[in-house]
Design brief:
The chain is built from ten helices and no strands. It is an all-alpha fold and about 210 residues long.
Length: about 210
Amino acid sequence: MGKITGLEDIRKVPPKVEKLYGAVRQLIQEGVDVTNVKVSSLTELAGIGKGTAYEYFDTKEEIVACAVVYHVAVMMEWLKERFRERNSFAESLDFMLQEIDMRNCRMQAFFWFVHMLTDNTEISRLIRQKMHSEEFAHYEPLDFFRRELEERRADGELQHDHPLDYQVYVLFSHLVTYMMAVYTEKSLHMGLEELRPLVYQGILRELCKKDG
């Protein structure tokens, strides 16, 4: 295999590249600013040689950008499989909120990722470029939620009073708000056990068909 683009089939990524991606993910989850990390630090953490990294990538920025895009793709593929196991939108929503609760240790990584999508570093530019490519369209988070809501609308679970894209942003904004609440829990005057059902009911109230 030649140089890695970050847009390969996630099931065909070479094992050594997966280790390198894992090193990037670990550092991000630990709150490390990976824009200042050296390639040698990444390869040492991954347990591979520095020369191996350059067999697949030209720059550290490419390594980090490809790692981020890869992990987003893996997460979206996993989420798609979990959604297939749920029989209704309400069940899917409950699952998502549970996952946010259980994975609160990763919230710092999520907000770092949001930041990376809006700043002007070379890594951020590469991430945006890759995530806006045709090859990544299947994994794009908003497109995933759009497909999920479109299916639920067709099944008659969701309202048709508003455009689909509006409903996507309603769902996504509620979820991001809850992620922020989980991340800043110590600053809240109410516990997550009180907030979570309010978020859950709020989304259902805005998106689902009214009885009768």
